[in-house]
Amino acid sequence: MKDLDRDIAERVEFLRGHMRAAGAKCLVFANSGGKDAALTGILCSMASETVYGVMMPCESSINYTTDLSDANALMAQFGICPITVDLTDAKRALMANLPADVTGLAAANINPRLRMTAVHAVAAAKGGLVVGTGNASELYIGYFTKFGDGGIDVNPIGDLPATTVFTYLKHLNAPTSIIEKAPSAGLYEGQTDEGELGFSYAQLDAHMRGEAIDPAIAARIEKLHAVTAHKRNMPPIFGGGYHKGE
Fold first, then answer.
1. For residue 242, is it within any domain?
2. Residue 236 lies in a domain
3. Cβ atoms of 80 and 90 closer than 8 Å
4. Among 10, 83, 172, 218, which is most exposed with the fewest C-beta within 10 angstroms?
5. Angle (CA) 169 44 166, round 5°
6. Is residue 233 in some structural domain?
7. Using CA atoms in the order 111, 113, 118, 124, what is the torsion angle rounded to 10 degrees?
8. Residue span of the structural domain in which 89 resides
9. SS3 letters across 77-135
10. Helix 215-227 to helix 201-208 angle, to the nearest 10 degrees?
């Protein structure tokens, strides 16, 4: 069992180190009101005197109700500066000018890409770093949007499995409403991560630890890992890129 306090201190110093290296004045993160965002926000609040949590409701009613309520509760408890950017009109304006066949997941993924545009705009204006909120489980199966929530400067929780995030949140006394809510990207009404994936984070994390799970689920997890490899790597450049002296 990890020494949580020591591990948390190391994550905080990790953030401080990247702030020093970049000459950053603050930290900025997308505050969805979910578990990963909560842990990221708490670590940011321990690393920097100035932290901005950007709430970005977009279309889904839960974004304007439970998500905003939980996000605000986190920021009030941990001294995080709130910023709200309503993206619904921007999404609708973009959709009105896109081809009619941009539907389903192609349309849903616009939300996190708009959110990352907004977060980076705030960070640029404030002189801050954009801190990511993706956990190890999501990263392993590519359960994030390329150039959306994957477009970050630094990630202090990307090595933590989803089920372990709960342990950290409880240890850090995060709001109970956040700890108990079902994980969801909030992309559309009724969406939950596990419902969309077709397996639980407990099953995914067990598989990542090398434990035996349902073979069909294990095969699905490994397929997702394989087909999303491009999300976890920089885009390939012909010839491997420029080489000094050539």
1. no
2. no
3. no
4. 10
5. 15
6. no
7. 170
8. 4-197
9. HHCCEEEECCCHHHHHHHHHCCCCCCCHHHHHCHHHHHHHHHHHHHHHHHCEEEECCCC
10. 80
Q: Determine the Cα–Cα distance for residues 208 and 140; give it in Å rounded to an integer.
A: 9
Evaluate whether 231 touches 150 at the Cβ level (below 8 Å). Answer: yes
Q: Residue 84 is which amino acid?
A: T
CATH classification at residue 151: 3.40.50.620
Distance CA(179)–CA(174), nearest Å, equals 7
pTM score of the predicted model: 0.92
In the chain, the number of structural domains is: 1
- List, for residues 149-181, the tens digit of each pLDDT value: 999 999 999 999 999 999 999 999 999 999 988
Return d(Cα 8, Cα 185) in angstroms, integer: 25
Q: What is the pLDDT of residues 136-146, one digit of tens each?
A: 999 999 999 99
**CA contacts within 13 A on the Cβ side of 101:** 0
Which among 152, 240, 239, 149 has a CA at the least distance from the CA of 186?
149
Residue 184 DSSP code: -
Of 92, 57, 53, nearest to 73 by C-alpha is: 53
Angle of helix 35-47 relative to helix 162-171, nearest 10 degrees?
Answer: 50
Residue 219 placed within a domain: no
Judged by DSSP in three states, 151 sits in coil
